[in-house]
Amino acid sequence: MKSTTTLTDEQAVQQFLHGDSQALELLINRHKNRIFTSISLLVKDRYLAEDLFQDLFIKIIETLRAGKYNEENKFLQWAMRIAHNLCIDHFRKLKNAPVIRTSEDRDIFDVLDFKEPNAEEKLMKTQSHNRVMQMVSMLPEEQREVIILRHFADLKFKEISELLQCSVNTALGRMRYGLLNMRKIMQEKELAL
Question: Are 68 and 23 spatial neighbours (Cβ–Cβ below 8 Å)?
């Protein structure tokens, strides 16, 4: 029997289905950074992202136990699609409810961990990161989603197209226009990274 750390995603899913809870823990630990960062960047609220991340794995457990998982060798893409749908569901609910903001309107970059020995470099990197995220947040939703999924979730364009249910060319086009728009924003606002 393989050690749980050397299992593929599919093997871990099968082990979980046979009662090995450590296999699920392996899947969560293996993919939590990519998934959580993507959720955080889409919803722009760390606490909400944490809630959605927990909801995601509850939904994953329920789906696995119900025998409805059939995404052979595509666990991460499947999990990202569920996460994306949870974010969309959240925003749909918000349209029907009044907007409520917390008193601590926390920045998304509280999630990111900047570990650098030099405080000045850390500050410059943080400021640069904030400028990039400010520009990303100004993009139309379709362009913003593709850029987040490509650069922060590190998904391939084929995976992005499956997740967003569009063609690869459409995803590539949205990325291209998003980058062009970011360049335009940089020039108009005279931002330096």
Answer: no
pTM, two decimal places: 0.57
pLDDT at 112 over 70: no
- Give 57-66's long-range contacts (Cβ < 8 A, gap of 24+): 57/24, 57/28, 59/86, 61/24, 64/13, 64/16, 64/17, 65/17
Q: What is the mean pLDDT of residues 156-165?
A: 87
Domains, in order of start, for the chain: 1-103 (1.10.1740.10), 114-193 (1.10.10.10)
Q: Do the beta carbons of residue 11 and residue 24 sit within 8 Å?
A: no
- Sorting pLDDT into bands at 50, 70 and 90, what band is 56? very high
